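Table S2 (continued). Query chain:
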Amino acid sequence: MSVKITAIKSIICSVISLSLLTFLLACYYSPNQPKSIVVPPSVKAAFQAKYPDIPHTWQRHDYGYEAVFTEDNIQYEAEFSATGEWLETEYYVTEKEFPPIVLERIKEKRPGFIVTKYEIEITPKGIFYEVDITDGELEEELYLDSNGNLQVDLYED
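Corresponding output:
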């Protein structure tokens, strides 16, 4: 009987040890851990030319790469193509930083919706204004030029 108990204890200890090892390996190799991003030298050089000596982190997107950095307590996202072409730089703002004409057009185009996010996007083609809106059921994103005209955001991530 004592041999059976010893064998059962040994099996239980083995199962616990194997479970613990599996758990630890799963934590160490978690898919949620950020992966190292290899950024082409042309993209790094383009960022450095536009934003010299600013600490940043990189993210990979379908259109290319995004550098995230903070300056004057504002978080920016500078987006570049895979070849290093600067596409846009965006940052969050409040309603008061939007031109009145843009705010009016949002209300005209989507009456009854409220804005949940305000963002300014600086691009080679000018400044654009992006908002997330909702009516409580539907959610939508609008992208407008400085005259309040709807535009297409080519680099939405």
